[in-house]
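Example 3.2
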Amino acid sequence: MSEKSAIDLLRDGPTDDVVVPFKIENAEIRGRFVRLGTAVDDVLSIHAYPEAVSRLLGEAITLVAMLGSSLKFEGTFSLQTRSDGAVRMLVADYFTPGIVRGYAAFDEDALERAAGSTENLLGKGHLALTVDQGADTERYQGVVELNGQTMADCAHQYFRQSEQIETSLMLSVANLFQPLGKGEPFESVWRSGGIMVQNLPDAGGDERRLTKKEREEIEDQWRRAGFLLDTVSADELTDPTLLPQNLLYSLFHEDGVRVFAAVPIQSGCRCERQRVENVLKNYDKAELDDMAVEDGVIRVTCEFCKTEYTFDPAEL
């Protein structure tokens, strides 16, 4: 990955739909900053879920962009929740080289009773993070328990249990009004952001035994990074006028921060007519006839992008 100085990226870096990796100098602390505009707005606008559900799905999409872009692989990184909460299921996918999508399933009555409470939205269940590199490779999956936490809490729990990496992160989703153009009316748009730091004392490949003083220095550096991260507000993570590089520089300039080339993110889907047709061909004639609607055709709608495919049962 190519490197640029913070000053270079302040001048010419991208502002939206990016993941910006960074490293705090003289410390084995690495991080990632995510800022999504159109990429998250495309997904949430297509579904037009109630606001509480949209915010939760926006956090999930931001999280998979943050984590998926850090992996050196070709394939799909997926987040999925299943629970007894008002939001029964969340699915968010990141697939290389930087495409995100997602959808949610929820109970409208339970959602109304939840009244925006995160504990009641997610409820009890589990969250699974899956790396899938294709049919000829073994899938990797980490599963953690859901117990009414926020999406950020779930990520913290995952890193503690599955990866055993000290991690601190924040996620934010906002629904903002911005003008369509000069003198034009305003439109409602979704934005999201996130920042993560991880303590990786072995990242340099030095396997020697650390002295007590070195361990104390690492712990002090980690505490300081966490303290600085706590000063970031939710609005700063989504603010379209605040460059990601400016925020990183304002946080860590005293310690020195090195930023790397940004990973671009966009929304998209992998559904194809041929894939849907191949699935339908596994059903017998009676089952296909049952699927046909009044006009005699079978209609299949992609949960992710809402694209509708129609088929004549006789052709299948």
